[in-house]
Amino acid sequence: MDSKKTALVTGSSSGIGFGIAKVLLEKGYQVILHGIETQSQIDTEIKDLEKFGSIIGYYQVDMGNAKAIEQFCTELKDSKINVDILVNNAGIQHVSPIQDFSPEKWDQIIAINLSSAFHLTRHLLPHMQKQKWGKIINIASAHGLVASANKSAYVASKHALVGLTKVVALENAKIGITCNAVCPGWVLTPLVESQIQKKSIEQKISIEQATENLLMEKQPSNQFVTPENVGQFVLFLCSSAANQINGAALSIDGGWVAQ
After folding, report:
1. What local confidence, expressed as pLDDT, does residue 195 receive?
2. Domain boundary assignment for the chain
3. Fold of 6-186+226-253
4. Of 98, 122, 188, 221, which has the highest C-beta tally within 10 A?
5. Closest Cα partner for 238 from 40, 25, 52?
6. Strand bridging mode 134-139 / 85-88
7. Catalytic member of 29, 58, 59, 154
8. So what's the pLDDT on residue 1?
């Protein structure tokens, strides 16, 4: 691996993105961190990651805002920071029956989960094309392949992200750039923890029981995927061994979509 390769991991201040950033740093990649928090709010997390390798910087960017993404990419370019590996991980969730689903929430989820990947790819792809090498990895979900009730925007955004992945892969297949989607099942992140807490309250059961119910309903392994599991998967997709894996939607879900 060329240690000079630089990876941008969106949503890397916590959860899956943090796990991905940690694994890439451990293996010698330079990493650009991103989140919605101010740098002072996640100073502890940044210091934790700095133990593992070279962090180029932390950027607070609203991934639901196309103009903010454009300004961010311009700032990277002006700072002569080239992104060789783009990991589109930023995402949010909202659970509601479709008839009650807030249009504002719909727009926000589509913007952050889907459109941000389009905008970042659009702005950062030219450097990859110029050097004839690049890895674009979209963190989709088991919900990019199958659906669950009450998650219309999330499921739509993740299905569409898988479709976008295939198009980017096809357009760049001959010039050393790959684009793949990783589709995790349940990962114990703040996003999933909030769903467990909601289940616990609504069903008047313990957090432990709500957690077990969540896993048993979907994930045959009855175990959470870890952020580090996803990070190792991303690491493999960055390697030369994965050069002919392109346009794929790859499950890491404890058997969820095998059912």
Report:
1. 85
2. 6-186+226-253, 188-224
3. Rossmann fold (3.40.50)
4. 188
5. 25
6. parallel
7. 154
8. 45
Active site residue 154: yes
Strand 85-88 relative to strand 6-9: parallel, antiparallel, unpaired?
parallel
Q: Which positions of the chain have pLDDT values less than 70?
A: 1-3
- For residue 52 the two structure tokens come to 């593992």
Entry pTM: 0.95
Instruction: Specify the pLDDT at position 3.
Output: 52
Phi-psi region of 32 (alpha: psi -120 to 50; beta: other; left: phi over 0): beta
Residue whose pair of structure tokens reads 């909202």 in the numeric block: 94
Angle, CA of 101, 102 and 107, to the nearest 5°:
110
